[in-house]
Amino acid sequence: MTRKHIHGGDIYRHPNVLDFSSNCNPYGLPKGVKEAAAAALERVQHYPDVSCIQLRKALSIEEQVPMEQILCGNGAADLIFGLVLAKKPKKALVLAPTFAEYQQALETVDCDIRYAYLKESHDFIPDEEVLCQITEDLDMMFFCNPNNPTGVLASQDYVRRIAEKCKAMGVFLVLDECFLDFVEHGEVHTMKPFLEEYPNLFLVKAFTKKYAMPGIRLGYGFSSDKEMLEKVKGVLQPWNVSVIAQEAGVAALKEQDYVRETFEKVREQRKFLWKHLAELSLKLYPSQANYIFFHGPEGLQKKCLEQGIYIRDCSNYEGLGLGFYRIAVRTPEENQALLEIFEKLIGKR
C-alpha cells in the first residue's frame, strides 16, 4: 500500500507562514556551517568521499563512538530505509503513534507490521505491554526516544529492557535518538554506551534538527555489528552523502557554543510555551523534546494557516485521529505570536 508522504515543514505548499510544524533548531543554520557549505561548492566537480572519512572522524570524537561503528547517510531516513532493505524483515513491531517513515520503509519490503498502540489515557507513555509484544516471530523493531510526535521520553532503564528483550528474541532494534540532544541531560538516556552489549542495536541520529539543516540531508548511525553495517552500505546508493553535506557536517560539529546557547534558549521557551498553553482549552501531553504535543479543536491547523501560523496536524499518524497536533518550540517573538493566535482561536479554560 502506497501512502501519501505527509510531513511538517512543507513550506512549498504553505509559503509565507510562521512554521511551527517542523521541529528544527529555531535559531537557524550556524554561520560557520553556511560558510563551509558555500566553500564546498568549489569541490563539487569531484565525487564525494564514499567512506565519509573526515566526517566520521569528527563524529567519533564528538559522540565518543569508534569510527568503524559509524555509518553516514542522506538524512536519517536514508539509513532507516537502508536498514530495512538490508535486513528485509518479514514481521516488525512499531509503536503507534510514532515517526511515519518507519512504517513507510517497512512497507517497501512488504513487511507485516504489528503495532504497539500507546494509550491516550496513559499520556501515550510506553509501558509493560510494549515489552510483552516483543516476541520471537519478529525480525525488527523501531523505537523512537523521545518519541515523535508525542515527545515522551523513556528512561534508559526502560530502553535497555527493550534492547535486552529484542536480543533474547533475536529481534533487530532500530533506536531513533534524533531528538535526544534537545532533552535536558539527554546524555543520561542515550544507549551509545551499550553498543557492544547489544550487537542487534542500530542507533539513529541526524544533523537535521540540532543544526537546522534539513535541506542539506545528513544523518548518521551507530552499531557494533560491522557485518551488518557493510550489508547496509551495500544497499545504499553510492555517493549518498554529498560533498556539501560532508563539509557542512564537519563544520557543524565545531559549533559547540551555538549548541549550548541555542539549546538553553529552546528549553527556556519550551517551559514558557507549556505554561501558557496550559491556560488554554487544550489537553497537553508530557513532551520533553523541542516540541509540544496536544489535543485541541478539530480544524485548528486550517484556522491557524488563515492567521499565518503553520502547525502540524497529526491525524495521519497511526493510532491518532482528528484533533491531535504538534508545535515546535521557536523564538520568544514567534512563540508569543502563536500564543496570541491560539488564545483568539481556542480561548482560555
Can you walk through the features of this model?
β9 (283-284) and β10 (291-295) form a beta hairpin. The chain contains eleven helices and 13 strands. It has helices at residues 31-40, 53-63, 76-87, 100-107, 128-132, 156-169, 226-235, 243-252, 256-277, 300-306, 332-345; strands spanning 18-19, 70-73, 91-96, 112-117, 140-144, 172-176, 201-206, 219-222, 283-284, 291-295, 309-310, 312-313, 324-328. It is globular, with a radius of gyration of 20 Å. The model has no long low-confidence stretch (mean pLDDT 95). α3 runs parallel beside α4 (100-107) and α9 (256-277) runs parallel beside α11 (332-345). It has 349 residues and is of the alpha/beta class. It is 35% helix and 15% strand.
General form = globular
Beta-strand percentage? Answer: 15-25%
How many DSSP E strands?
A: 13
Terminal CA distance reads 42 Å
Helix content estimate: 25-40%
Unreliable residue stretches: none
* Count of DSSP-assigned helices: 11
How big is the Rg? 20 Å
Report strand order across the widest sheet.
Answer: 2-8-7-6-5-3-4
Order of helices and strands: EHHEHEHEHEHEEEHHHEEHEEEH
How is the biggest beta sheet arranged? 7 strands, mixed
Structural class of the secondary structure composition? alpha/beta
Assembly state here?
Answer: single chain
Mean pLDDT: 95
